[in-house]
Model the fold of this input.
Amino acid sequence: MNINNLICIDLDLSSMEGFRKFISAWLYKGEQFTLLVDPGPLSTMPKLCEAVRSEGVKKIDYILLTHIHIDHAGGTGALLQEFPEAIVICHPDGIRHMIAPQKLWEGSRSVLGALAEAYGEIIAVPADRIRFEDTVGDTGIKVFQTPGHAQHHCCYLLDDLLFAGEVAGVRSDVPGGIYMRPATPPRFILDVAQGSIDKVIALAPSYMAFGHYGLVDNAMEHLQIARKQLQIWVKGAAITAGLENDKREDALIQWLLAHDSNYANFSALPADIQARERYFFGNTLRGMSEYVDGLPDEERHALLIA
Done:
């Protein structure tokens, strides 16, 4: 694997505030194969196809989906219309939704509203072009099922490069450090999410390509941060349990700014990206709060003293 053959294609959504340096696809041009990870939503397909063709790519062998959320996979069917030879690799639980995406589209519209419309409709993937494999063809890429952010989440290991999707949440570079936030929409289960992080930690990757956002050459450090963040945020959700929703969100933000040094870098983000991250905080909180509020009293109390 030559890391210089890896290209990040930004799929900025100019119609939405702060949606830059956030959504991206990863193109890898190997000597024996070309693959693309997470093609993004339908509305950015023209941008993606232009970027891929500008790299001299005439054929994509594999499209790897880390999960089937609309911002990662919504445009897959449209991409196949441009590169019909490609095989899509997807978590087994996601395949039927990509073949018949109406329910997935309706769910996206229900949860995301105007944002789903900005992403665009989900185009069906032909049944004979999508599958799950433990190893991707003859590429040597290993596939790992990593539920947590979503039940249908996978990570892909190419030598010492991990295509991580959102197993470690969301990150942004800031002056002198990094900003990170867990991505835990409902249905979040702490043991499941931490188990998936532990699974990829055991692989000891050197490089990691985030779904949101960027390539890092200290993958293990980021994975350890992500694992610790889950513990911190669950504790914060337990401490703020019982507050009304609006008050709980504000209280948790203030608690995290004091207890999570990576999330505390929120103030170093540009104003528009702060607005985007504030929007998605509510989704993370919903997953955390539903998990914590559903615990037996003794387990919730144990979180407070952890």
